[in-house]
Structure prediction request, 614 residues.
Amino acid sequence: MSSESEKWGWQHVSIFGRFDKGSGTKRWRCNHCNLRYNGSYSRVRAHLLGFTGVGIKSCPAIDGSLREAFHILEEERLTRKKKLTSGSAKPSKRIRISRSTLPDTTKEDMDEIVARFFYVHALSVNAANSPYFLDMVKAIGCFGPGYEPPSVDELSDSFLSRERGRIEKSLALVRESWPHTGCTILCVGCLESMLGCFHINIFISNPRGLMYLKAVDIDDIDGADNVFSGVLGDIIMEVGPRNVLQIISHLDDTSKLSDSLMLSSFPHIFWSPCTSNSICMLMEEIAEMDLLKPVVLCAKEIKHCITTYQQFSPCSFNQNMEGSSDPPSMKFAPSFCIVQRIFELKRLLQELVNSEGWKQWKISNPDDILSIEEAILRDDFWSDAYLLLQLFEPFALEALRNKGIDEGTVKQLEELIENRWDVLFSPLHATGYLLNPRYHGKGQTKDKVVMRGWKATLERYESESANRRGLREQLSSYWRLEGSLGDEDAVDCRDKMDPVVWWENFGFETPELQTLAIKVLSQVSSIAMCQEVCQEYDFPGPETSNRMRVERVEDLVFVRNNLRLNSQRNGISNSFSGAKNAILCSPSEAKTWDDSHIDQTKVTYSQSIHDKMC
Prediction:
């Protein structure tokens, strides 16, 4: 029990009697309003702090500033009490903050209280844009005075369990669709230096929705490939081996080793590279070419110079030099992002270097910035920057040829594209191109690359030769437009319906091929949408981790990431997400082979390999 001397409220009342000797119930008079009451210290505290619901009125003589001071005293008392009990006692009841306790509070006062909460806990101010923050504020307002927030223990236990259960229930429909459409396991990993381990987030994707499954930490970095294979095996068994068609990862060498190790256990599952990551890597390789490297270096120097100027005169040029590029694209394709942003600011930069403010700063600046100024004002730099951007949207060799670039440089670019294409290509890509009704009749059956991919897909997807023969016969029916596949509506809707929906409607007379087509065309080709979810605050802080049990930390990460995905799926901007880059992902959901089909990927890479698959 707390000492009576610790109870600050007794100093603000006058005691003139008690009911029983040793009893906490006393007769007292408030020194501020002179009203008399009977009761223990809890009623004194409620009277002074303005609490409701305990059978006593709030003191009418106490103004907002004094009441706020009393709240501070009460917080300090509870803190001392908690330290004395060393956490063994049951958590103290929360102080209610309501409109009735702050009768003179204005909108500005409330905003300051909210801002103070962000600042004292070092929260990202972007969290104010979160739909969940706005929902919370609205809900508290609707509840009205007297709302008491959940305690720390409740937030980390009962409410967390309840929220996980709600999310699991909402994802049940997604899980039920896995046998029909198949699914892709997406692995987003990074080397976490602070924890000294390899941290991998696992997502499951199919047309019904993208869901976060779990995170795994691999402590043995040297033997990561073997450990990772074991972890993936467990995940495949959890999802269902026949439900998984593909695994996508950007873990490079670890992916290749794990692919070979798992082939014996799950031969029907394909390991595909991440297309967005492969494209970004190609963009960086192109930026290192002798022809284009000076443009990138000049753009970086311009960015550094302008950033320095902004520190000298922040109001003169308030443009964000990072632009709208999201963190994944900045990480994997920084050269492109820098040149793109500098090119976007061309007119503003030229106006800046002609301004009086710039001229004054230039005089006092010891660095030689004349070369940077000349680059901004000269057409040569902008022409070369435009050429680089042309190569990336899409990779167009004709842009080089039209500029009169020598064939040696063109050949070097062709080799870079060919090499990256060889790394990117997967048998599933060829099968997706072959079975997409939008590209029916494009000569795929005469293309060696496509048909070899189809053959490899069949051999891994179906172990029985008789079943493979049946699939080949049904493919012939598809190309010959036999039965329902040749109906007038089927032909008319080939380029008007989603490919999966088309097969569901018109592929019923070739059921085995229909099943395969639906599964292949339902898969994604990139992990970019997962990187966006994981790019910030991936691990709970040490204080949170220490307070919660391991399983509760896992629940917290599961709940957080799936709530973020839900916002992303509904087209709601999350506080953690930057602007999306059109090169990396679609506006609101993962792209399937409907949007990332094989010939479009090929065209994006270069027209120089157009004869491979057209």
